[in-house]
Structure formats: C-alpha cells, structure tokens
Amino acid sequence: MNLEITHAQFGVRPPVVKPIPEFLIEVGEEGIRTLISKHYDKIRESSIANIFPQDAEEFAQAKVNSADFFIQICGGPKYFNTNRGAPQMVGRHAPFRITAQARQTWLELYKPLLEELKEQGITETSLLSFWGYLNIFSIWMINTQS
Ligand code: HEM
Asked: In this structure, are residues 71 and 77 in contact, taking their beta carbons and an 8 Å threshold?
C-alpha cells in the first residue's frame, strides 16, 4: 500500500478531504477506537511522547477524545462535539510544539496499523482515503518551525 507522506511547507494548509463513508462502515466505531488506542500506545514509546500527556488518566482520556473526533469526521455520531465542543483542531493543537518532524513521526506510527487493517480485510480504497485525510490534515497542525 502506498502510504505517501506529503512534504509540508510551513504555514501552507492544503485543502482537506474527509475519509469516505466506507472507512467507518468497514472498520466500525470499535475498530476506530482500537486503531486510535494503538496509535497512542505507539506515541508513548516514540520520540514525540514528550508533547503528549504523561499522566495515565489524562493519556487514557486523550484516546477517548481523539477516537470521538475520528469517528465523527468519518461520518459517525457527533461524539466530539457533544463531549468537547467545536473541533477547532488547529487551536486545540496550538499549546503543543508541533514541528514537521513531529508530524512525520506521528504519521509514520499510523503506517503499520493501517497495514494491519489491510491484512484484516479492510479495503485499500478505504484505507487510502483515511490516510489521505491524516496526511493532509496533519500538515495543518504544524505550528513550530524546525
Ligand atoms: C489529522 C491530524 C490530527 C487530528 C485529526 C488530531 C486530532 C486530535 C484530537 C481530536 C485531539 C483531542 C483534542 C481535545 O479533546 O481537546 C488531539 C490532541 C492532541 N494532538 Fe492531535 N490530531 C492530529 C495531528 C496531530 C499531530 C501531527 C500531533 C503531533 C505530532 C498531534 C498532537 C496532539 C497533542 C499533543 C494533543 C493533546 C493531547 C491529547 O489530547 O491527545 N496531533 N488531536
């Protein structure tokens, strides 16, 4: 599967396309929660762990908030809006120093998880659509020059 990472130019926010509805239909809400949980577990073992919550309870809550968002953006119930309010993702990421390198690491950690879903039978079309969303929207979160 060609999970390409687009080069990010600081301050440039390319247009974002949401994942196709098939992604949520195929993976399911619980599948998305598992995916996000595994991604956070990888973050905890990575070079970007320091910008994420260190406290176990806060870390567990971060998984819930993130999964709420991803289910919502994939066309599911508006869990994030209900529990956290308007997404305003750029603003919510502003307190954290996110460099192009941090975004790259964050994306790289998703790759084996999406390959795993492919092995489990999720279609490449759906996975590439989800990846496309992550790849582009993650550029928006870069707020610190390397
Ligand atoms: C597609 C791109 C991304 C999406 C959709 C996304 C989504 C989210 C969401 C929904 C939250 C929880 C916000 C809240 O409840 O207040 C969050 C928090 C956070 N994100 Fe992201 N994020 C993205 C990219 C990134 C990247 C590239 C980094 C850093 C490398 C990052 C670092 C963080 C940090 C440090 C937090 C705060 C702790 C936490 O709640 O997890 N995010 N993100």
From this structure: yes
